[in-house]
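INFO batch 0412 | record 1 of 1 | parsing
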Amino acid sequence: MTWFAPLGGDHSSVVSVLGGFHLSWNGSVQVGIPRASLRLVAFLAVRGGVIRRAAIAGTLWPDASETHAYSNLRSALARLERACRKTLQASKLDLSLTEGAAVDIRFAQRAGAQLCSAMSRKAYEGSSPVAGICMHVPWGAHAGC
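INFO prediction complete | emitting tokens
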């Protein structure tokens, strides 16, 4: 089960990578995901955005030949159950999570950025000298995470 509740939007799929990997589809936790497929979904969740298949294959199977790495990627995709495949958006050259997929790490980044933004405003206003620390946190400046 995930520790966060996605706000707004239609989040049919929820990917949780913090504190262990979990993938939910329409509220049902998916179990028995093959290891390579799990690594693929986790990689897409952590990286975010659209990623070239070549980059994914090379990252997940760095010691394999290019041909073998591509074969492993195709296998990882094929082994995903139908519900899990709905979490992915695929083209000939690219892969990503679907636009509506909620990812706990993105939620945590946004929450951290919002907290630091609020604390930085308080520090600027002089109400909290400790809050000034957030101004030096690299991801605190990225409220759009």
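INFO post-check: Residues 105-141 form one domain.
INFO record closed
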